[in-house]
Amino acid sequence: MAKAKHIKGARKGKGTKGNKGKGMKAMAKLRMKKKQQEQQAQREGPSRIEGALEYLSKWSRRDEEEVDWKFNKVKQATLLRFWPDRQKVPSDVFSQQLLPYLKSLPETGLERTIAQARAIVENASASATQEVDAQGAEDENDSEEARQLAAESSALRKIRHARALKVIAALLQET
């Protein structure tokens, strides 16, 4: 009995099922990648930052009777990750609550935070040097939008630099 060609081809991996499976795998990979991106955005999203800021607020009022503050490693990690960013940690929270909180960290946490702050200072200094070199080489034909973006980037870098210097000063004062 002779077998049909489509059955023979399928056994050798030449059928349509093989191609269909590859497409399904690619779609599954895309769905998985999208899901991972959504999870990453959720982990770094506003609710995570807001929770960390609420945690910090409770920490600063922990001596009051009605405040129930409890250590939370995830919220501490969020604060330690985003302290240089003024958009995530407002200036008043940074100076009034975060700096005292950082001073209360154990020695290893202090060392890591100081190292992070020093790296920010070094990166900001290197970026400032590169920016000065780039400004000298700019054409007069640069768009207004490009200049505005450069000015905004420079301002944010200066804020990160200033915050890093404040953290270094506050934490080295404690040790």
In short:
The protein has 175 residues and is an all-alpha fold. The protein has helices at residues 5-11, 16-44, 46-60, 73-82, 91-103, 107-137, 144-174. Helix content is 78%, strand content 0%.
Task: Please give the structural blueprint.
Blueprint: H1 5-11, H2 16-44, H3 46-60, H4 73-82, H5 91-103, H6 107-137, H7 144-174
| Number of E-state strands | 0
- Count of domains: 1
Q: How many helical elements?
A: 7
Assess the beta-strand content as a share of residues: under 5%
Unreliable spans: none
Give the mean pLDDT.
Answer: 84
Please write the string of helix (H) and strand (E) elements. Answer: HHHHHHH
Protein name: WKF domain-containing protein
Biased composition (Basic residues): 1-34
Domain WKF: 54-119
Pfam families: WKF
Q: What this model shows, in words?
A:
This is WKF domain-containing protein. InterPro entries: WKF. Pfam families: WKF (PF10180). It comes from Chrysotila carterae. This protein has 175 residues and is mainly α. The protein has one domain. 78% of the residues lie in helices and 0% in strands. The protein has seven helices and no strands. Helix 3 crosses helix 4, helix 3 crosses helix 5 and helix 5 packs parallel to helix 7. The N and C termini lie far apart (89 Å).
